[in-house]
Structures are given as structure tokens and as C-alpha cells.
Amino acid sequence: MARPDSAPSRRPRRRWLRGIGWLVLALVVGLGLFVASMRDAFGGAPEGERLARMQRSPQYADGRFVSPLPTVSDSASWGGIWRFLTGGSDIRQPTAPIPVVARSAADFADAAADLRVTWFGHSTLLLEIEGVRILVDPVWGEHAAPSPLLGVRRFYAPPLALADLPPVDAVVISHDHYDHLDLPTVRALAGTVPKWVVPLGVGAHLEAWGVLPDRITELDWWGEAEVAGIRLVSTPARHFSGRFLTDRDRTLWSGWAVVGRERRVWYSGDTALTPAFAEVGRRLGPFDVTLIESGAYDASWADVHLGPEQAVAAHRMVQRGDTTGVLVPVHWGAFDLALHGWTEPAERVRVAAEAAGVAVAFPRPGESVAPDAYPSTPWWPSLPWQTAAEAPAVSTSLPDSVLALIP
After folding, report:
1. What does each C-alpha distance from 33 to 1, 39, 182, 189 come to in angstroms?
2. Whole-angstrom Cα distance, residue 13 to residue 1?
3. What residue ranges do the domains of the chain occupy?
4. Which among 28, 199, 319, 385 has most CB atoms closer than 10 A?
């Protein structure tokens, strides 16, 4: 009599198992469709002669680019990800509107004959140098992510509408992370910008998004291109690259020196501190203006980002002791990309620059800087922030001569 009684008890269990199976299948299919919806944002994969050229780079080994210095970081670990999602400051985002300086096409009707740098927020910059316009890391998209569902929304609308951007002679890209290489912006500019100058491999993304191959120049570190008499020189950086889980370090990352007849500008790109900056100074410096990554730092990823105090050290290294250049902190105040408060990078740069005797400019988003005319007073709200002593972020593998330059 036991066998007939046990048969009904197995049926609910089987229905329960089938339900779990269908749920797992639905989750897998949903995840697959979600990833597929982001496929365009992932960009293109280097192949053919582009890949062959990458493989000849001194920075390339075993299928990827490699930093000359080791990287100690837990940012990609589950613990690091969980800490980013759940921890950090309570003021990582502004609670009131940021005082953006709205700009119009008329403001840029004529390119500056000397030097003018306009910060549109984060690392998006318009350089006007000796009558030539260079657009750096243009991001007009609303999210620094492959999908709006992943968050990372910008704090404010771009200070200048993309349609009002003046004709530019070239676009320069530092690396392929979403907060520096933006699909909708590239597609909007693809048919109008005559030259795109990028690190090795990044051209594959541009081609996938509609930029013609003959408009793309890909450079290794110390390679250079010429645009209307202005030299664009790729400079070493200590960072990484990638737009998906499977393509980390498949393209190169770099900083950029923009060298005219009289004026010089250096943009660090995303980077940790490296002795290579001294070589940048010896070869190309000193600079009238340095544009240096100062936000999105943490002790856990100090080998891929500078942070405020090391931004000041980087400025001192490329200046070779020259005290006339002005530092403009970038890579802050537009996206929630780290655990610190959103105003903390500027506060710490201000303190470090004063201690080191470095001139620093603090433009509002949309505001312009010239070597002899720049805003230097705080415009952000007074909020709690952690000092360098309370939350240090210092890169590893540095010689004492470099460590001595950190305020």
C-alpha cells in the first residue's frame, strides 16, 4: 500500500523542480538578451593589420597590453565590487544643482589664437591652441556605462549642446573606458571630425561606430601625429582598458601632450603615478597647462588612478621644476565612480597644491582657463571630506625620488 501513497508526493516535487528550471532558463535568457542589447556599446575587436601592429608594441605581451609596473588592486574582486556598491561616503552625489556655466556656439566662433582650455566636466575638454581646436575624451552621453540600467548617470547636462560644438580639427581619446569613450558622442561626430588620434587598438571601436578608417591614427607611447601644425604625442600612463568582462587590456591607454610653436598642454589621461612622468617632462615639458586626473581614487585602486595628492606630484614631475604652469584637476564632479565624497577631490587638490606651491585652476563645468587668466576659488559646496592622512591613496612600486614629490 506504500507505493500508491508515495506517487502523489513525488509530483509536487517534480513540479517544483520544473519551476526552478524554468526560472533559471528565464534568467539566463534575460541576461543574454540584456548583454545582447549592449553589444554595440562594447565596440569592435582589433584584427588583421591593426592587431599585428599592436602585437609589435613593447607594451604588448601574451594577448594584452601590460603596465611596466605591477598593479595591486581589488577593484575587480567580488569584495571590491560589493564595497563599491554598498559602502563609501554618504555624499557621493550632489543634492543641489551644480553651478554649470552654460555655453553657446557664439562663445567659440573663433578659435583662440593663443591657448584656451574649456572644461565641459569629467575629462571632456576643448583645447584651442594657436588657432587649432582639439577635443579630448568627448562624452555627451547621459550615462558612463553600456546601458542606462547600470546607472552611472552624469550629475548635470553638458554645458554646451553637441550640436553647438564648433568644428574641431581632431578628437583625442585616452582609452576606451565608458567615461572617456562614448558611443553616442562618437556616432554624432563620426562624419564631421577629420582626424581621430587614439592609442593602439581603440580604432576598432571607432570603425565599428562609423568613423572612416582613413580618419583614424593609432599610436603607441611616444608616437605622434601632426594636426595643422600642432603635435599630438602619446605619453605613457599606468592604467588599464576594456569595455566588457572579456576584453581587459586588449587596447592601449595613454596620456597626451599637445605641443604648439609656443604653447604646450599635457593631459594625463587615467593613470596612477609612474616614474615615466619625469621622462614626459624631459622630452616635452614644461607645460603651460596640465590637465590631470584627480578624482575616482581609493587605496584599493591606487595603481590605476592618481588621486589629488599624486595629481600634484605628476604636475611637478612633468614641469621639471618650472613654477609657471597651471594645474587643472579633471576626472571629478560629473559621475559617481568612487567611494569618496563628490567634492573631496577638489578639496584635497587645493590643500596639496598650496603645500607644494603649485598654481591650480578650478573652473566650473563649462568655464575656460588660460595660462594667465583662470578661476582659482572654490565653487562647490562646503561638505565633509576625508584628508590624505585619513584616506591615503598612494601608488605602489615607486622610487623614493617620486614619493618625495607627493605633498
Report:
1. 50, 10, 22, 28
2. 21
3. 56-403
4. 199
| SS3 assignment, position 231 | strand
In SS3 terms, 175-227 reads as CCCCCCCCHHHHHHHCCCCCCEEEECCCHHHHHHCCCCHHHEEEECCCCEEEE
pLDDT digits (tens, 9 = 90+) for 188-235: 999 999 999 999 999 999 999 999 999 999 999 999 999 999 999 999
The pLDDT value recorded for residue 12 is: 64
Q: Which long-range contacts (CB under 8 A, 24 or more apart) does 375-380 make?
A: 378/346, 378/347, 378/350, 379/99, 380/98, 380/333, 380/343, 380/346
Q: Is the pLDDT of residue 288 over 70?
A: yes
Query: Do the Cβ atoms of 254 and 274 come closer than 8 Å?
Result: no
Global confidence as pTM: 0.91
Q: Mean pLDDT across the stretch 240-256?
A: 96
CA distance 238 to 241: 10
In angstroms, rounded to a whole number, what is the distance separating the alpha carbons of residues 67 and 368?
A: 33
Edge-to-edge strand order for the sheet containing 170-172?
A: 216-219, 196-199, 170-172, 132-136, 125-129, 115-119, 368-369
* Residues 303-315, mean pLDDT to the nearest whole number: 98
- According to CATH, the topology of domain 56-403 is Metallo-beta-lactamase; Chain A (3.60.15)
- The DSSP annotation for 328-381 comes to EEES-SSS--SSS-TTHHHHHHHHHHHHHT-EE--PPTT-EEBTTB---S--S-
Region 179-185 average pLDDT: 98
C-alpha cell at 231: 603635435
Cα 277 to Cα 330: distance, rounded to the nearest angstrom: 17
